Amino acid sequence: MTWAPLRIIHCVRSPIGGIFRHICDLAAAQSDAGHAVGIVFDSSTGGRFDLARLDSLSDKLTLGIGRFPMRRHLGIQDAKAAGALYRHVRNINPDILHGHGAKGGAYARTIGTLLRMKGRNVTRVYTPHGGSLHYDPHRLEGYVYHRLERILERMSDAIVFVSDYEAAAYQSKVGTPNIAYRVVYNGLRPEEFSPLGDVEDAADFVFVGMLRDLKGPDLFIEGLYNTKLKTGRTPTARIFGEGPDEARYRALVETYGLSDKVTFMGASPARTAMAAGRTLVVPSRAEAMPYIVLEAVAAERPLIATRVGGIPEIFGKHARRLIDPGNVAQLTAAMVAALDNPARMADEARTLRKCLSETYTVDLMHDRITSLYRTVRGEQAADPLAPGNMASIRQAEAARPAYVGSGQKE
User: Which segments cross the bilayer (predicted)?
Assistant: First the structure.
């Protein structure tokens, strides 16, 4: 007995960062498993690096790549974009419409519902990736977005959360889902579970991520300046990434007199970027389940990170090493300590790697998400002895429980 292949469309607004890596990895794994897969996303955003990654997957995306204007915030233009996107998806006739992020999730679930009204058997799945869950529920913007999430849940068949933190945030800000839901960690490829050495001229510190305040590049730069004041030595640093606030961060570097020590490198593969600095700094103000932290731990990179989102879940019993988000004093102290004792940082990185669960793999991520599609659609389970089917899913379930809409563990 084998699974019948599915027709799967992934929808996201901005093709950049960890959310897009998640989609590309998932789409590639689903294609390798025999499914027909396509991706739709915004036509006005996306960096060269991420779009090049997508180009490398073009042969696997048999349902194609669609680009449509998708604004970040709600507006009247959404209606026109939704119409064009609806016609594109309708003609593909997917079995699964999987929306990622707040805007991608809104488009996917709305269009999926319209197709259901037309008699199509479309399963509507949503993964927040943080998104609207980062907003303060006590502020007007957060209140509006969280109420919209509750409304959109009625047009959903399942939700996939990438961390226990994200699931808890949804329950506290939106409410306990009344539909099937499951926690599925982001996954790494096998080659990413190998130690990574430094490049010959590695900087003291490296930042890798989107250049926007949510990820904390401004805090990183301020920490460098404070480290200079405390030690009398200006540390060297490299900043990898693209984003809307790059010009402001460049100006901040110049204001602090760090221009000769800090280099903006643009976007680059994570392992290449991490090797360019002796210690990776992740000063995020908010996260869901950041790939860069998983990648750093798997590669045994010395790491300074904040206690946000799913990062404590990665660190496990070593979560005490994390610093408070937005606390520049703690960040500076950690950076000074890293300069003073690199041997201890390397030892902590090796210890942390030993605690990283082997369930953080692309194969298990794919198996658990695709098996959720099947469950929601009411399809019959495959032969458990069939390669790549239920055996690996059972291993994942034994390692950590998933959650369903009733609040009970599977």
Answer: none
Element (H, E) at 89: helix 77-92
HSE on the CB side for 30, CA within 13 Å? 30
**Which CATH architecture fits 191-354?**
3-Layer(aba) Sandwich (3.40)
Cα 33 to the chain's mean position, in Å?
22
Of the CATH numbers 3.40.50.11550, 3.30.499.10, 3.40.50.2000, 1.20.1200.10, which one belongs to the domain with range 7-187+361-399?
Answer: 3.40.50.2000
Q: Taking each helix axis from N to C terminus, what angle separates 362-377 and 390-399, rounded to the nearest 10 degrees? A: 100
* Interval 226-231 mean pLDDT: 97
Cα distances (Å, whole numbers) of residue 79 to 22, 57, 111, 312: 27, 30, 11, 39
The predicted pLDDT at position 399 comes to: 41
Residue 316 and residue 299: Cα distance in Å, rounded? 17
What's residue 71's pLDDT? 73
Q: What is the CA radius of gyration of the chain?
A: 21
pTM for the whole structure: 0.88
Q: What is the pLDDT of residue 384?
A: 43
Q: Say which residues have a Cβ less than 8 Å from residue 154's Cβ, sequence separation at least 6.
A: none
